[in-house]
Amino acid sequence: MIASKATYPQRSSVVKQVLAAMIQNRPLELDASPNQPWTTDSVSDVLHSIPRLFFHSPRSIGRQKGFRHRSHLKQRNPHQEPDKFRRFRDTQKVEFGVEKAMEFYCWVETQFGFSHTEITCREMACVLARGNRLKVLWDFLHEMARKGGNGVVTTATITCLMKVLGEEGLVNQALAAFYRMKQFHCKPDVYAYNTIINALCRVGNFRKARFLLEQMELPGFRCPPDTFTYTILIGSYCKYSLQTGCRKAIRRRLWEANHLFRIMLFKGFVPDVVTYNCLIDGCCKTYRIERALELFDDMNKRGCVPNRVTYNSFIRYYSAVNEIDKAVHMLRKMKVMNHGMPTTSSYTPIIHALCETGRILEAGDFLAELVDGGSVPREYTYKLVCDSLRSAGEADLLGDELRGRIETGIENRYKQLMKVKPIMMHRIPL
Q1: Does residue 301 sit in helix, strand or coil?
Q2: CB under 8 Å to 168, separation ≥6 — which residues?
Q3: What is the pLDDT of residues 200-229, one digit of tens each?
Q4: Which pLDDT value is given to residue 306?
Q5: String of b and e for 129-168 (b: at least 16 CB within 10 Å)?
Q6: 281 near 238, Cβ under 8 Å?
Q7: Are 182 and 190 in contact (CB under 8 A)?
Q8: Considering only CA atoms, which of 315, 393, 381 is closest in space to residue 351?
Q9: 234 contacts 189 by C-beta, under 8 angstroms
Q10: What is the arithmetic mean of pLDDT over 136-156?
Q11: What is the C-alpha separation between 195 and 159, in angstroms, rounded?
């Protein structure tokens, strides 16, 4: 599997100097540099830092990583959204970041004789993709393929590029990149197919995604699907069904998900915990608890160990339908079976349901149990319990020591967020 986001243990002094020069709009230069201060990791570190420093809007800094709690993307058209695009990014700052990236990429090659590798080429391509400079991106890739041969622009490069374009909502461009692999003498592998199928599903283009899956399922095809291929489609069907307001569409999507699950079993694939979690979560959120419990039993029979996500789906369902005792049973079962440690996401639905049904004292006990487990409740949950206890005449139930721990944890979380929030509040002088 290809990681589009590399991790670096510690930045060297040359990386810090170059990033500071970019932010301050100074010429790129090094103080008392050795003959060759640049390595593949250091060059990749600089290029990887540019989107974070220049492309994010001030309000997106410090946001939750990943796309777990976001609604599905819509296919974007950069040529028809200039006004809308400016609300989320400073276009001048994005242009400035792309220019600095290209300047640095050429600078390390001309000034230090650095030979760019597949990794640095991939990072530069990702910068251009995140900056939505698509024409420049393809010119750059063709130039690198001409200069470096087939070893610079590889299948991994195009696959990582498709992943970034899919995250940016440019799925049509990601699909075009998938079909343009032949121009660079690259052959798509199963990870490339999974990446483009995931991008198509995230914008709801299931017809094209199913077409690619059927292509992979052809006898003798060199890239047969794997468990992850089916999991992508099953999870997307379940999540996308919840975005529709039509019951018929919800039933149809869930039927498609269960149908793919049965095809997956028929072909001999072994579903993992992620596959089961997607189906169970979709069934619980659409009040199909019988099917969810059936999948839970099948999961245990096949030796697939459930995790916290599995139990959280049942806890949320039972809390929503006011069957709190069953939700508590699931919470206790998760701890007894050692299938995961309950966190804020496990306790919060139970605490809210207890407050809504007037079982205030039990809600306070679960809040104390949550804090004793090492988690910090959400500020809304804490205020809800305090208000409920106050209205019931039990304001002193939590105790000063527990209140102090909760308020200190919430305050520390807020301070940690504000340390990153103001990073890009100032405008870079152009």
Answers
A1: helix
A2: 76, 129, 130, 132
A3: 998 888 999 999 999 999 988 888 999 999
A4: 94
A5: bbbbbbeebbebbeebbeeeeeebbbbbbbbbbbbbbbbb
A6: yes
A7: no
A8: 381
A9: no
A10: 85
A11: 7
Task: Identify the pLDDT of residue 418.
Answer: 72
Residue 299's pLDDT is 92
Cα 430 to Cα 317: distance, rounded to the nearest angstrom? 53
Q: Residues 365-377: pLDDT tens digits?
A: 999 999 998 888 9
What's the pTM value of the predicted model, to 2 decimals? 0.82
Number of residues that this document lists for the chain:
430
- Coil, helix or strand at residue 79: helix
Residue at token pair 């104390």: 368
Instruction: Note the pLDDT tens digit of each residue in 356-406.
Output: 998 999 998 999 999 998 888 998 999 999 998 888 888 778 888 888 999
Which residue's structure tokens are 């306790």? 347
Alpha carbon distance 62, 236 (integer Å): 26
**For residue 175, what is the enclosing H or E element?**
helix 171-179
Single-letter amino acid code for the residue at 328: V
**CA dihedral in degrees (28, 120, 174, 128; nearest 10)?**
0
For residue 12, which amino acid is it? S
Residues 6 or more apart in contact with residue 109 via CB below 8 angstroms: 115, 116
**∠ Cα 317 322 325 (to 5°):** 85
Token pair 């979690």 is at which residue?
A: 277
Q: Report residue 350 as tokens.
A: 């139970």
